[in-house]
Amino acid sequence: MQRNRFIYSLLIGAALLSPAFANPGHETGAGHEESAYGEPGDPKKSARVIQITMRDADGKMEFVPSRLEIRKGEQVKFVVRNNGELDHEIVLGTLQENLKHAVEMAKNPDMEHDDPNAKRLAPKKTGDIVWKFSKAGEFDFSCLIPGHRESGMHGTIIVK
């Protein structure tokens, strides 16, 4: 009986430490491992700073700028400011991953991100994301709060 309890405790402990348990519903591939679009950057290393503004007005939501060009291997520090009147977020990923995650967000609209590739901001707040783009391609950044992406809040990252 005591042995079974011990084994059960080990299984529960392993489950609690697993990435799936620690980050439920987040399948963006943006853990601390390299993904299709790169990996979390090192804040102690130099990075090119790119400022992105989130805006909402007259039913339109947007990122400014909404198109970015980055060199393969480059580390970038995104300094993001929410100039809108609503909460917004920025999620870096592939278009397919972000569209899939948007479906999950529609089911759980209060889901908040604690991922290195995402940041949610209240109105008039700022935050940053440090990211290293290790692979060439076309990638997406979106606000996945329900209705925001559909209202125009998305952009494209071209890594050459």
Describe it.
This protein has 160 residues and is of the alpha+beta class. It has one domain: Cupredoxins -  blue copper proteins (Immunoglobulin-like, Sandwich), CATH 2.60.40. 21% of the residues lie in helices and 38% in strands. It has 3 helices and 10 strands, in the order ααββββββαββββ. The chain has a 5-stranded mixed sheet, with no helix packed on it. The chain is globular, with a radius of gyration of 18 Å. It starts with a helix and ends with a strand. This is Cupredoxin-like copper-binding protein. InterPro entries: BlueCu_1, Cu-binding_ET, Cupredoxin. Keywords: Copper, Metal-binding, Signal.
Query: What's the tally of helices?
Result: 3
Proportion in β-strands: 35-45%
**Based on CA inertia axes, which overall geometry fits?**
globular
| SSE arrangement, N to C | HHEEEEEEHEEEE
Label the CATH architecture.
Sandwich
Could you name the CATH topology?
Answer: Immunoglobulin-like
Outline the secondary-structure elements:
Blueprint lengths: L1 H16 L1 H4 L16 E2 L7 E10 L2 E5 L2 E4 L3 E9 L5 E6 L1 H13 L10 E4 L4 E8 L3 E6 L11 E6 L1
Parallel strand pairs: 2-5, 4-10
Antiparallel strand pairs: 1-8, 2-3, 5-8, 6-7, 6-9, 9-10
Can I get a quick summary?
The protein has 160 residues and is α+β, with helices and mostly antiparallel strands. It has helices at 2-17, 19-22, 95-107, and strands spanning 39-40, 48-57, 60-64, 67-70, 74-82, 88-93, 118-121, 126-133, 137-142, 154-159. Mean pLDDT is 83; it is low at 1-31.
